[in-house]
Amino acid sequence: MAENVMDHIVADLRNTATAHYPAHGELRNVRIVGHTPKNDHFVYDLVIDFERASERLAAKVYRASKSGSQGARNLARLELDNLSHAYELFEKKKLDGIPRPVGDFTEVGAVVTEKFSGVPLQSIVMKGALLPGYADNGAVAVAASMTGHWLRNFHKASADMPEPFDSQALLGDLEKLCESCRSEGLDDAAIRTIMTGAKKSLAGIRKTLPSSAVLNDFTPLNVVVGENGISLSEFGKMRRRGSSFHDVAHFLAYVEALEKYPFCNRSLIGQVHDGFLEAYGASPADQAVIRVLKMKELLSMFAKGRSGKENAVRKKVMWATVMKRFIQQAAQRSLAPAA
To answer: Which of 82, 114, 146 is the last residue of a domain?
Structure first.
């Protein structure tokens, strides 16, 4: 159980904390101050009190009930390896924004890191949507720009040789997703708009695209915005090499999907979208590919639908109705031919 894992982690930190933070003086206490349950793991907040300072840590404990004890250990090992690799890359480049791993707790299915103080980017966007005038002070646009810079730095720090780009394969994947979404109510007009726009966007695109480490989970909910910049703490799905634009499209699709909430207007989403892309430094040719990749991500969301506790028929119908309308609007904005 997670409680037993945390007992082990706390006991270990009481023995090793001074080695992790030799400049902080004598250890006073190790405290658990809260926890957040997630689908396949818990995140525990810890505070280590020293004679001259305190440090906040986060312990991610994978649920053995979901993947088994060995599965939890494997997930923790993969995430720690990915996190350590990313942290070393940023250290070499003297960049901030990736939490420092603290110890090795993979044998109990856990990963412990320093905790970055801040709020999720998604919370800032929602605040901008709900509080009149909040988005006008520039906070949302600045946070989006900082996020674009962070991802650009991550991709540059882990850059690899460009990888071949198969536009026909991408169009084929898009067509299959459209057919899958047809059964959920996506109409023929929307499908034609998507496919015609995608073909036009990819016409004459170069044969290679930039590659780097790819996070595969870079979303507004996982991006933490603090006073000192941006941080990310989800590295379980990271791959050492892939198409850099996948992260960009994945992020923008999740930003775009926020517009399905009635209080999230297009102007606000546009601020985030444009501020992020400008900071990332995507050229017009890059943006053409990203638009198609973003639509692929959105169609994947639509095809998967809702799951888990909200699997009731009525809620699935509501989800399909909202997402159908949203996909149609997104296709018109991103891929419809100019008048």
So the answer is: 114
